[in-house]
Design brief:
globular, 131 residues, Alpha-Beta Plaits, alpha+beta, single chain, 4 helices, 6-stranded antiparallel sheet
């Protein structure tokens, strides 16, 4: 699995509970992967200005046709704000029907790379929901 560097948001360094969100898109056709990943990179550029964003990583397994994100938010409201952004909605619509998406979210007090153990378990199919 390849991962991007940590991209901090305006709420980076927060202490206390945060919401972790993990997405896993599995493309039906490998030829869609470059566009999907480029779309993720474009969204990442806006990250430093997203209200309630603590930080995020993108990940990909290009030869398996999979990619997604591990993002950390102040709360569910901040995540919903991102999901409703016009750029995000446009990307979802563009790739709807071109693969399968699954996601999970959980609350933790660990707003750092330590969330990756839980995220990897979810992505490996070892857990349906991370604790």
């Amino acid at each position: 699995m390849l991962t991007s560097r940590w991209t901090p948001g305006p709420a980076a360094g927060v202490t206390g509970p945060v919401l972790v969100s993990v997405t896993d898109f599995h493309a039906d056709r490998l030829r869609d992967m470059p566009g999907v990943y480029q779309a993720g990179l474009a969204l990442r550029r806006a990250w430093p200005d997203l209200p309630g964003a603590v930080g995020m990583w993108l990940w990909t397994e290009p030869l398996r046709g999979r990619c997604g994100s591990v993002s950390i938010w102040l709360d569910e409201q901040a995540l919903r704000g991102f999901v409703g952004l016009p750029d995000h909605v446009a990307i979802v619509r563009r790739y709807r029907g071109r693969g399968r998406l699954r996601s999970t979210a959980w609350t933790t007090t660990q707003a750092d790379r330590g969330v990756w153990a839980q995220a990897r378990a979810y992505l490996a199919g070892e857990e349906t929901l991370a604790p």
